[in-house]
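Field guide to reading this record: the first block holds the primary sequence, the second block holds the structure written as discrete tokens, and the final block holds curator observations. Each block starts with its own label. This record concerns Thiaminase-2/PQQC domain-containing protein, catalogued under organism Apiospora kogelbergensis.

BLOCK 1 — SEQUENCE
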Amino acid sequence: MSSHKSITAHLLHHPDTAELYRKATQCRFLELAGQGRLPKDALSQWLSQDRLYAQAYCRFIGGLISRVQLPLSSATEAGRTTSFRILLMLQTALSGVTTELQFFETTAMEYELDLAAMEGGQEFEANQVTKACIDLFDSYTAEAGKGRSLLQGLIMLWALEKVYLDAWTFAKEQVAGCTALDGGALRNKFIPNWAGDQFGAFVDQIQECLDAYAPEATPSDVDQIAMDAWKEILVLEEGFWPRVQ
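BLOCK 2 — STRUCTURE
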């Protein structure tokens, strides 16, 4: 990685992951979602998994908070450090995901979406990809996370949210039809929330924290650590979008 290029710019523009990134942020599911052509049952099934993902995300953020080391200095000086900025950002993340879980419930009720829906009427549980995401998040908890660093976690957090923002921005850019098969839940509620300025500002905040922290915490193999984390998230995010016709 060039000494003049930030870690996020290095990952975003790396030729080895360009196709992985496209697949993670552009797919048929997102096209139909933006066009209003995604059936209500398909949205319910995906949203049910996203809710489980969000619940585990809370534990992930808690694990990252536990890794932040504030300096032994005065409160005024501490407030200007990268560590304190990261702590404030993670506080925003935790507040945001708790608000998101409530948003799921109220929107599902308004649009009659089933938050325990499974394809084929199976008993509700996390699907294979969601389980992989949950396992990843739980690998940062106190019991399991001794081998996981704050740097790795911040890379993954930024990657998760950056991909999510760009994916739903892609959906937002689709030409909407006259009717919405989901009753308007995506175009009226979910897409404005996930592709809006507020979420975009949060993703920028994560990126700024990561780019500031990486030079301070960089191990000798930072390029490989960053690329491994980036690829892992891209593969998971691609798999998280359901296959639809």
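BLOCK 3 — OBSERVATIONS
The CA atoms of residues 34 and 174 lie 5 Å apart.
The chain has a mean pLDDT of 92.
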